[in-house]
Design a protein that fits this description.
heterodimer, A: alpha+beta, Rossmann fold, three-stranded parallel β-sheet, 27 helices, B: mainly alpha, 2 domains
Chain lengths: ~775, ~350
């Protein structure tokens, strides 16, 4: 079916026939959106379904799967991988069916325009109504449903009429964005081990005397170790013996003009306290053509998924990694992160291709492929097992697919198939100015935006050597903790939904609604504030907003206790989650999970303690740690963290009420030092920042765990040479899959919920 | 003509007595009045109006709405409303069923076509047949000593049809859901039957009219049996916390996953039908059936009214469970069914026996 022909076909269906009026009336008030979450706008979709906005008022009940519903709300980004699923879901739905599309990225790509992995949804399925916004507000979404209802009734409407307005312009000079220093270096110098002040940890000293190995301190607690490629494994083993027990990130940098690639393992320690803040980048150069890489999976199990991902992104092979198939990318994209891969924009400028991304559909639904080899099915059949693929279109899967092998009711093996929301942020970041990447990376997790912002901005500040003023630090701390609460509430809502408890979902989302109102008052946006900028924050918070925040910290307690009494203390829930999905301390360290989930397994590791940032050292708070490592511990630990966060917020508000002063560093403002804040000066002050040569890695404790940003700059361009993001959910995926094995089928969702796994964050 | 006369005579001899409309019937000339009174012939009235077809239909349209509204209320929101704002969206289910009716029905390639399409219709046999044995007060279609037993037997047929539906769907999730349904069947069936036996022991009869007229409240006589019956009903009708075979977030409606359009509409109300039958049974056995203050002008309808009201209350309690509990796991439900619930049902039988012996 060609989309053009199918356009409005369903509207025509309901307009004709003897019973047309009845049919129209029935369908109009019974638009059941299929539960098909495609991207981060799903958070706002959840909000419009929850008690703040309550989509069900209009008869729109978010429901089950394709067969029983008649309405798709496409949430923004449709990646190439998801496009197949979208098409399949659409074909599975019975006529008449309707589609509305929310989010800017679904219309022309939005923030992710020019990405290699984005498609245009209206070329895949006929769309009845577009709702712009990034993300859309629930009001907008509900308005979209209303519009579809009216369209069914036969009253199509264009909601926006663009008018041409002539604005009078009074004198003054034009405020233009500064032209960026666009000299393109033919051969940029790409180096990781640029020596900077900092000390080598005692334990690493013996390594430094080794022949052929170069150990460089590249900052405080940052060490780069360069080895020949063939000695990578040996040094890795040495490092592991020294106590570096997990991988924080695996990275590849393509350096085409030197005809080689750089493989980097960023490792750290959970078990040795003095090594906790130390990050060691173990790297080696390999030839660019036919790069044979040695997998270090057997040394650090936690490197496994990162290696699989890089195999897709760079078209390399890690010898020794058992996974040699596609992991996060669709089959048609080849090695997109190599520097010679052309994005659409480039191809268009060079006259090679049209601007719209091209996607070809497999002719048979059977080839809507499962990423697992046929042997899995054969082996399962031999062992009397049952293969159950879950997602990406499943009521309890989000945007992830997991292929479960079930024997009886017990899960034998779980094979993840992520990448359905891979919006190619790492590649896009290479095409944008440093400051333009702030809103880009924010979309990693719009349930936890401030922490993600903070992670990226702190990396910039670390590179530029800018220190934000005290007041800005306090504001950031306060907002980061609010964001942490918000992310917990989101995850707790999903958790309760996954255990079949919709009331818990509603209660947490009502609390989130309060929180988002606070964000609107302070930053101007519900989910995507982009409020944290290099050198401080955009503007000061008002006294009124501070008072509101203080009230919030006590008002939420009442609702939180109601949530606890109906959900947390529910005997059925206790029965369901206690002792389920246990990760022991050793397992947790081995698979390298992060954040509260790691602490729930008994590891005392928190970036806010290990390597304090912002105002955390000035405030009093505890890090809760649990030993059980099961679903209940993971959930209750985060609940306890919320109490600590509320505590921090309260202290920060009190401190903010006492202090006043600038909220942006003077060196950022430069010649505009009299300006109260950055408004109106943003591009003039920050538009053309250029980072010094070298790699800058910064860790931040986001709501779901350690967030790693690693920016590699060539020292002369205003865009990063390479940005590596490793998000908490991505690191937790491995732990999640480990925890699932050996549990019962129904426990999969309990474990999923307890890990707070957020696919847009994981897939990047 | 003579036969018609006989039929009319038979009908008028066993008529539902409603004093309110007697004068209206009296105003009509003789043959017409008897024709008009034909629907009041007790078996016909019971089958078609109350507690049969009309009541069932009305409840099926109302109960999901009540459930959605009630859950919405508990969850701090409004629920269906805008369709008729001033009535709180009471006709929401009408819109939903119209939509189901006019939607395409997809029969998937992997399904077993005859069974797939037939089972959803056949499943109305165990849903509608028990209606003939339900007594709304004194209104009953077929009055026998074994009404309760027959109802129970028919209700126990339900899972067979659901198994058939799931099995013929040819879907992995339907398969898992079907297996779960079969397991759950084993978990609740024995306690359910035992609790009914306990009550039959106390009442000494399976005739619902007699049980209602005995004037004894089953829930007072044997609260344990009532508890077991309640839990078994929740298990049998897939209400939370035992919504295990359908498990929205896990299996996406398990056995019904492949059904679309009107076939799904039918499958969707199936659980409610079963709930209605079991609630009627619960009302008969434990809540005194149609007993209640007599409303004189309604005559026999008074008992029916009380009966329906009680059934609605029971069903609403089941509906509210949805907003309160998360879902148990299959093995936990099985364990509960075979240990504690079974034990309680045996205790209930002992209590009944003691009562019978003491009163004898």
């Amino acid at each position: 079916m060609v989309v053009e022909e199918a356009k409005d076909r369903n509207i025509r269906i309901v307009q004709h026939g003897v019973f047309a009026p009845l049919r129209r009336w029935g369908i109009r008030w019974s638009l059941w959106p299929v539960h098909f979450v495609t991207s981060c706008c799903g958070v706002e979709l959840a909000h419009s379904g929850a008690c703040g906005y309550d989509m069900e008022r209009l008869g729109a009940l978010n429901y089950g799967i394709a067969r029983q519903s008649n309405f798709i709300i496409i949430e923004g980004t449709i990646t190439r991988k998801m496009a197949r699923a979208l098409r399949l879901v659409y074909e599975q739905m019975p006529d008449p069916k309707f589609v509305s599309l929310i989010g800017a990225c679904g219309e022309r790509g939005g923030l992710f325009w020019n990405s290699y992995n984005i498609t245009l949804p209206h070329e895949i399925v006929p769309v009845d109504f577009f709702i712009p916004g990034c993300p859309v507000t629930p009001e907008g979404l509900i308005r979209g449903i209303r519009a579809v209802q009216e369209k069914i009734e036969g009253r199509g409407r264009t909601t926006i009429e663009f008018k041409c307005a002539e604005l009078p312009r009074e004198g003054g000079e034009a405020r233009l964005v500064p032209s960026s220093p666009k000299f393109l270096a033919e051969t940029p110098t790409v180096r990781i081990d640029v020596p900077r002040e900092g000390e080598l940890p005692e334990r690493l000293k013996p390594l430094a005397e080794e022949e052929g190995v170069r150990v460089t301190a590249i900052g405080k607690n940052r060490v780069a170790i360069r080895t020949p490629a063939e000695r990578l494994e040996e040094i890795a083993l040495r490092l592991k013996e020294l106590g570096f027990d997990h991988v924080k990130s695996v990275n590849i940098v393509d350096v085409p003009h030197e005809r080689r690639m750089l493989v980097e393992y960023v490792v750290s320690s959970y078990s040795v306290r003095e090594l906790m803040p130390v990050l060691v980048s173990l790297f080696a150069y390999v030839p660019r053509v036919s790069p044979g890489l040695q997998s270090l999976k057997h040394v650090w199990e936690s490197a496994d998924y990162c290696e699989r991902e890089l195999q897709d992104l760079f078209g390399v092979r890690f010898e020794g990694n058992p996974w040699q198939r596609r992991f996060i990318l669709a089959p048609e994209v080849e090695a997109p992160l190599r520097k010679d891969f052309r994005l659409e924009e480039e191809s268009y400028v060079l006259g090679e291709a049209p601007l719209a991304p091209k996607i070809e559909y497999p002719p048979e639904p059977l080839s809507y492929y499962l990423p697992v080899p046929d042997e899995v099915f054969e082996e399962a059949a031999k062992n009397d097992e049952f293969v159950l693929p879950i997602g990406p279109h499943h009521t309890g899967s989000g945007h992830l697919r997991v292929i479960l092998r079930v024997k009886g009711d017990v899960i034998v093996d779980a094979i993840p198939d992520p990448g359905y929301v891979h919006r190619s942020m790492e590649k896009l970041a290479e095409t944008k100015l440093y400051v333009q990447n702030i809103p880009l990376f924010e979309r990693l997790s719009i349930a936890d935006p401030i922490n993600i912002n903070l992670g990226y901005v702190r990396t910039l500040e670390f590179a530029l050597g800018v220190e934000p003023p005290e007041r800005a630090k306090l504001i950031r701390t306060m907002l980061a903790e609010l964001s942490r609460i918000g992310a917990f509430l989101y995850d707790a809502g999903i958790f309760s939904l996954f255990t079949g408890h919709s009331t818990g979902f509603m209660y947490t989302f009502s609390m989130r609604e309060m929180l988002l109102e606070l964000f609107v008052r302070m930053t101007g946006s519900r989910c995507t504030p982009s409020y944290v900028i290099p050198g401080g924050v955009r503007w000061d918070v008002s006294d009124e907003a501070l008072k509101l925040t203080k009230n919030f910290t006590s008002a939420i307690l009442h609702r939180l206790s109601k949530f606890e009494s109906i959900f947390v203390n529910n005997p059925v829930l206790m029965e369901r989650v206690k002792g389920v999905g246990v990760l022991t301390k050793e397992q947790a360290i081995n698979v390298g999970i992060v954040g509260p989930f790691l602490r729930a397994s008994g590891v005392e590791y928190d970036i806010r303690i290990a390597e304090p940032y912002e105002a955390y050292t000035e405030l009093e708070w505890d890090v809760p740690v649990a030993d059980d490592g099961d679903c209940l511990a993971r959930f209750l630990l985060r609940l306890e963290e919320v109490r600590q966060s509320l505590n921090i917020v309260r202290q920060a508000v009190e401190a903010l009420e006492r202090t006043s002063g600038a909220v942006i560093a003077a060196e950022v403002l430069g010649e505009f030092k009299d300006a109260p804040d950055i408004r109106g000066l943003f591009f003039r002050t920050l538009g053309d920042i250029c980072l010094p040569r070298g790699e800058f890695t910064c860790l931040t404790e986001a709501a779901r765990g350690t967030l790693l940003f690693s920016i590699l700059s060539d020292g002369e361009s205003n865009v990063p040479y390479r940005v590596r993001v490793v998000t908490p959910s991505w690191m937790n995926l491995h732990g999640f899959m480990e925890a699932v094995k050996g549990q019962r089928l129904a426990d999969f969702w309990a474990i999923y919920g307890s890990f707070g796994y957020f696919p847009p964050e994981a897939d990047r | 003509m003579k036969m018609l006369g006989q039929i009319l005579e038979l009908a008028s001899s066993n008529r539902v007595e409603i004093p309110l409309i007697e004068p209206l019937l009296g105003m009509l000339p003789p043959p017409l009045s008897e024709l008009a009174a034909l629907p009041l012939w007790k078996p016909l009235f019971a089958a078609l109006v109350v507690p049969g077809f009309a009541t069932l239909g009305l409840l099926l349209l109302l109960l999901p709405w009540i459930e959605r509204k009630l859950c919405a209320r508990i969850q701090w929101r409004v629920g269906p409303k805008e369709i008729v704002s001033w009535l709180g969206g009471i006709i929401q289910l009408l819109a939903d069923s119209l939509r189901f009716l006019f939607q395409e029905v997809i029969v998937s390639r992997d399904s077993h076509r005859p069974y797939f399409t037939q089972f959803v219709l056949l499943s109305f046999i165990p849903a509608l047949l028990p209606m003939l044995f339900v007594a709304a007060g004194t209104i009953i279609a077929i009055r026998t000593e074994y009404s309760v037993q027959i109802m129970l037997a028919l209700v126990c047929l339900f899972p067979v049809f659901i198994l058939g539906m799931g099995w013929s769907s040819g879907n992995r999730f339907a398969f898992v859901g079907t297996v779960r349904e079969a397991f759950m069947y084993f978990a609740y069936e024995v306690p359910l039957i035992l609790s009914v036996i306990a009550m039959l022991l106390v009442f000494g009869t399976g005739d619902p009219v007699a049980i209602g007229e005995s004037g004894r409240l089953g829930i007072v006589l044997n609260p344990l049996a009532a508890l077991v019956f309640f839990i078994a009903t929740a298990m049998g009708t897939s209400r939370l916390p035992f919504e295990i075979p359908e498990a929205d977030q896990e299996l996406a409606f398990g056995p019904f996953i492949e059904y679309s359009g009107i076939t799904f509409g039918l499958a969707y109300v199936l659980a409610y039908e079963k709930l209605y039958v079991l609630s009627a049974l619960f009302t008969t056995l434990f809540l005194g059936g149609g007993s209640g203050p007599m409303i004189a002008p309604l005559g026999e309808l008074s008992g029916a009214l009380w009966f329906v009201l009680k059934v609605i209350v029971v069903m609403v309690v089941f509906a509210a469970l949805r907003a309160i509990y998360p879902r148990f796991r299959l093995d936990q439900a099985l364990k509960a069914g075979w240990s504690s619930i079974l034990a309680i049902s045996l205790l209930a039988i002992i209590i009944s026996s003691v009562e019978v012996v003491m009163w004898a």
